[in-house]
Automatic annotation (TrEMBL):
<dbReference type="InterPro" id="IPR035979">
    <property type="entry name" value="RBD_domain_sf"/>
</dbReference>
<feature type="domain" description="RRM">
    <location>
        <begin position="1"/>
        <end position="49"/>
    </location>
</feature>
<protein>
    <recommendedName>
        <fullName>RRM domain-containing protein</fullName>
    </recommendedName>
</protein>
<feature type="domain" description="RRM">
    <location>
        <begin position="59"/>
        <end position="140"/>
    </location>
</feature>
<dbReference type="InterPro" id="IPR000504">
    <property type="entry name" value="RRM_dom"/>
</dbReference>
<dbReference type="InterPro" id="IPR012677">
    <property type="entry name" value="Nucleotide-bd_a/b_plait_sf"/>
</dbReference>
<dbReference type="Pfam" id="PF00076">
    <property type="entry name" value="RRM_1"/>
</dbReference>
<keyword id="KW-0694">RNA-binding</keyword>
<dbReference type="GO" id="GO:0003723">
    <property type="term" value="F:RNA binding"/>
</dbReference>
Amino acid sequence: MRDYKGTTNRGFGFLHFENDQAAAAAMKHLRESPIRIDGYATEVNQNKSKSKSRNEPCHVLHISGLPLEIQYLEVLDLLKEKCPDFKSLRFMAAEPGNFLGVAAVAFEDVAAAERAKETLHGTTLNDMLLREHNIAFGRPLYEDRPTDTLMLLGTPTSRDAAYDFRRVLDTFDFKDKLTDEFRGFTTVNCGSVDNAWMMLEWFNREYPHYRVAFITNGHQYEQSQASRRRYHKVGQA
């Protein structure tokens, strides 16, 4: 496992097995005959996932355990061959150029994602066999259905921090209309659902360290935020 920010080794990792019996046998063997790595003794424990929704069907798939040196086009070519109806591919990153080894693949609906999950299982990517634990459902991009409005999260919160984002800074509204401060997010009305999907794909390809998701309506969201601010001020009075 690598650090979320710096991709440095965190000193532990996960071993996946075909079933519980194989995992129990391996853990018993490693505890009875411990191994040393670079002179350090290793400790073996059973992992219990904290996520309850990992296997809940969703329209987004996470392909994990990918080599950090794998190229975007390699994954793209596999998706075009195996599940050409996918809508977007994102190399998940905490910072620019800091790939985390996980690719998020979005589909039109849950049914398409479920078909792709079955299709990708057992295929080879960059000499790596994609097993069941490598392909899981991820965080959804919308609640009921995709809309014509996107929210871009994690945008710069200052003019200096926005330097590398200057190409789109003048196009979208990153500032609060009342305070004129950078908000760290923006809403983008794309005019149609198809345009929203294309815009989402562009952001995921060019700026994968930002998270993009569908929201109901940009105007409704702004009204909701304004209402919350008024409520907060009344509560402080």
